[in-house]
Structures are given as C-alpha cells and as structure tokens.
Write the structure tokens for this entry.
Amino acid sequence: MVEMSVLGPADVRRALAAADCADIEIRFFAESTATAPQAAAAIGCELGQIIKSLAFLIAGEPCLVLMGGDGQVEERTLAAQYGVGRKRVRAANAAQCVEIFGYAPGAVPPVGLRCEVPVWLDEGLRRYGVLYAAGGAPNAIFGIFRARLERLCGEVGAAGQSRYLAMRRS
C-alpha cells in the first residue's frame, strides 16, 4: 500500500483561492484547535459556530458532514440520505481520513479535500452568520460567512436535494 501524503494549510489556501475566496485568512494558534471546544476557546466564539468536518464512509462511499460544534451526527439521518441502514454508516478512521480526504482528524477543512465527496451541512449551522472551520492543521482555523460556505459546498445537491440535515444538539 502506498502511503499518502498529508495535505495542509497551503492546500486549503489554494482551494480557497481557486473558489474566489483568497481573502479568507487562515489563523494559526500556539495551542491545539483540533477539537470543537479547543477551537471555540481559541477563537472566542460559541461552540455551535465551530464546524466539525466529520469524515464518513456510507456503504463504502466517502462523504463529509459539516457539523456544528455543539451537535452530534445522527447515523440514521445520514443513512436515510443514501437509502441504507445505519449500520452501513461508519466514521472514517485516521488512515482513511488521510487517504481519502487528505487531512488528519482534527484538521479536516470543508474545502481542499484530496478528492470530491458529497458534503452535508448540519441544519444547526444556519443559526450563525459566521462560522469557523479547520484550516488543514490541528492549530489552524479560518472564519467564513455561512453564505460563502454554502456556495463552496453547494447548499443544494443533485436533483435539488438539500445539503442540510437536521442533527441532534448537545
């Protein structure tokens, strides 16, 4: 098996620039921002404003769920989007995160992934105008207006299907 290189903040910057978002600045912190509570503390925002980019394999197919920091993915909800049982929904492990998505867990951004995958957004993200996402390293974050995030990720998917899913709040 060939070991895949880990992508980083420079890859996120390139993806943002290619999407006409070169003005978005990735901020770096001395402390880790790999978890939602760490990121919220570093930025000084509400936990729900932090985007947890969670990598999943559904019936073997990769997807990314952009979850508010105060929410939890409901596997049944995600499985229903693919017409499979919840037991077919699996969180990607660390090696799969790097191999498929390009980044280590805690550093996965919503853009600049190794390959194109469906992206689902947590309905709870609609509560905020400004959100904060991982910037490709466990100490890197960028702020983004929700409307820009929707444009980057596609608020509506194939056949007009909404990319927003209702998930559980903590």
About this structure: The longest strand covers residues 51-58.
